[in-house]
Fold this sequence. Notes:
By secondary structure, chain A is an all-beta fold. Chain A contains no helices and 11 strands. In chain A, a hairpin with a 5-residue loop joins β9 (84-91) and β10. Chain A starts with a strand and ends with a strand. Chain B is built from no helices and 11 strands. Chain B has strands at 4-7, 10-13, 19-25, 32-38, 44-51, 57-58, 67-73, 76-81, 90-97, 106-108, 112-116. In chain B, strands 2, 4, 5, 6, 9, 10 and 11 form a 7-stranded mixed sheet that branches.
Amino acid sequence: EDQVTQSPEALRLQEGESSSLNCSYTVSGLRGLFWYRQDPGKGPEFLFTLYSAGEEKEKERLKATLTKKESFLHITAPKPEDSATYLCAAYSSASKIIFGSGTRLSIRP
Amino acid sequence: GAVVSQHPSRVICKSGTSVKIECRSLDFQATTMFWYRQFPKQSLMLMATSNEGSKATYEQGVEKDKFLINHASLTLSTLTVTSAHPEDSSFYICSARDNGQVQETQYFGPGTRLLVL
């Protein structure tokens, strides 16, 4: 069964304290791995799409990487405005998109 | 680019009434749109895939007659919650896939908060 698992569920960091969020996936025929940011009461905001193992993408303080089993979202020197829930989703060969449960990130000033 | 809007953003209705939610792709065409439901502090649950000009594909456990989907144009899909009940209260989010892009990325709307009294 296709599955996406994110860890940790919640992460509290001090401003400037770098860390990584994990997304492990078991999906038949991965066609794409997506990262989204979601603020409370709003729809997810697209961040990255990764297609193959070894691929990396960066945007400001965020960098997403992909292996054959997992993806990481690295956040470097985070600021309070980076506080949000980060969702990853895997797109399978069966044209199904499976979301993880998200990581709630909180950055303290 | 890749902006998706939803209307209304928030709706309160009485039990037994029907509610229509619109999802529009503002700057691209979308043959395929998706409807999700999200409970507090939980991830998105796919309800159905909306296909322009054809019937929607519903996920297992989602009632077709309860959640009516119409995708009449390449920029508009609607979700109608019929005979709404308090248990239908939730955050409904749509997404759309850009026809003009090779990649499969879905772009999400801002969501509609439904409260059924």
